[in-house]
Amino acid sequence: MTIRVLIVDDQMMVREGFSVLLNAMPDIEVIGEAVNGREAVTKVAELAPDVVLMDIRMPELNGIEATREIVAAHSESKVLVLTTFDLDEYVYQALRAGASGFLLKDASARQLADGVRVVAAGEALLAPTVTRRLITEFSKLSQTPRPPALAQVGELTERETEVLVLIAQGLSNAEIASRLVVAESTIKTHVSRVLVKLGLRDRTQAAVFAYEARLVTPG
Fold first, then answer.
1. How far apart are CA 98 and CA 200, in angstroms?
2. Where would I find the Response regulatory domain in this sequence (predicted)?
3. Which of 211, 146, 161 is nearest to 191 (CA)?
4. What is the per-residue pLDDT across 12-43, written as a single tens digit (0 to 9) for each?
5. What is the pTM of this model?
6. Which residue, of 119, 138, 157, is where some domain finishes?
7. Please, are residues 140 and 186 in contact by the beta-carbon 8 Å criterion?
């Protein structure tokens, strides 16, 4: 199936460049563009894209607020945040708003296409070069666990909690299966149950939750 993409950025050259790169892929089609967050919300409602490539810093409505509105109203559209800065203080907020991951704008054409595919498939995407810095942001912004988070953790089994921690550490299903010496299909089941019990959209939100609940600490 073709992955339908909406590109949101206030710079025309960026939008056009990404459009050319993605339309060159046989399984990806750019179905629209938006110049700010407000227009993005409207376009998502009209076009129902599979993936929204979302810039953070834009006029009228920034990428964080636009992501929050899109996720709340259109759960089937996944948001992949694009940022110029690997130290962008807003990345953490974007993930909390419901973004499925983020990628630096200097990513290669292959990395961009692969990122779209990963997010479209419901997986998390965290650019390797910024993951450690993102964890530092978790450390700054989540010094203590939120009471609701603690209450929800209690609903997980011991094995589900273990899987949640490994997700937050960046391990794939295959890597978690190898670590716990079980079948990958078993891990997929555990991941699904974790997401349902915690009311989360995807692995990215699961990682955010694990840090906020202090199940994982930076280091």
1. 9
2. 4-120
3. 161
4. 998 999 999 999 999 999 999 999 999 999 99
5. 0.71
6. 138
7. no
